[in-house]
Design brief:
It is a single chain. The protein is an alpha+beta fold. It contains 6 helices and 11 strands. The strands form 2 sheets. Strands 1, 2, 3, 4, 5, 6 and 7 form a 7-stranded antiparallel β-sheet that branches. It is globular, with a radius of gyration of 18 Å.
Length: 251
């Protein structure tokens, strides 16, 4: 269930859960109407949570969904689900669950409706457009990363493939280990993998991840010093109109 090819090591000396904050609850200067910024702010959290979700909840077990009962199961363990949306391999398109063409009970699309409401308040088209074409930027994984990243609830997502595409569902596994802060090595691994795998705004990605992790940090010009069990120096450099990570060093 990890987002990246590199596995995380959930070392215990991570951030402080008591100090956690969502970047969306701060006055950090990101443009909430811009997908690039919103996705960048959600990626670090989702990487850590999805890896732990696979380790502690999914555990390589077979999955089964029962929409009549509203449950997603892994082996014998069943969890109440929220239907986020679906990919169609026939039309190569994504459709948000709030469009509800399947006529699901309203209780199954509460989270999807919340995402649409957030999109309306932020003027974010990707959350308010019912259906659009799939590509490398917009697909079940990236949309679920953002959906589970902006909500205040504790959600993981699961992509369940079928003959004509896939369904994307969210669950709360009720396991604190899934949402635990990560330590220095794991943080660095996810940052490196994230910028290699996705097109993101590097400062937003890093700072949002640190905020979610409860890791205090200071900004000094184009440098960030994050206080894990050891201090981590992250250097940025100008690349056209963007700042990108130049290097990371444990102090």
């Amino acid at each position: 269930m990890g987002l990246f090819s590199k596995k995380g090591n959930h070392d215990p000396a991570g951030g402080n859960a008591a100090n956690r904050v969502s970047i969306f609850d701060t006055d950090y200067p990101l443009d909430r109407s811009r997908w690039f910024h919103v996705f960048s702010a959600c990626l670090g959290k989702s990487a850590a949570v999805q890896e732990a979700f696979g380790k502690y909840t999914v555990k390589n077990r077979n999955w089964n969904v029962d929409f009549s009962k509203g449950t997603l199961s892994f082996g014998k363990d069943a969890y109440p689900l929220q239907f986020l949306g679906s990919e169609s391999s026939q039309s190569n398109s994504w459709m948000w669950g709030w469009n509800n063409i399947n006529g699901f009970d309203e209780s199954l699309i509460t989270l999807a409706e919340e995402i649409r409401s957030i999109g309306e308040s932020w003027n974010l088209e990707e959350f308010t457009t019912a259906q659009f074409e799939l590509d490398d930027t917009f697909n079940g994984h990236t949309l679920a990363i953002a959906a589970t990243g902006v909500t205040k609830g504790n959600y993981c997502y699961y992509k369940g493939p079928h003959a004509n595409g896939a369904v994307l569902m969210a669950v709360d596994p009720k396991d604190a280990r899934v949402f635990a802060p990560v330590g220095l090595k794991t943080f660095m691994d996810y940052v490196i993998s994230g910028i290699q795998t996705y097109y993101v705004d590097h400062p937003i990605f890093v700072e949002s991840f640190l905020m979610w992790n409860g890791t205090p940090y200071e900004k000094e010009g184009t440098r960030i010093i994050a206080h894990f069990e050891k201090d981590l120096l992250i250097d940025f450099e100008q690349a056209d109109e963007f700042l990108r990570i130049k290097g990371m060093k444990v102090l």
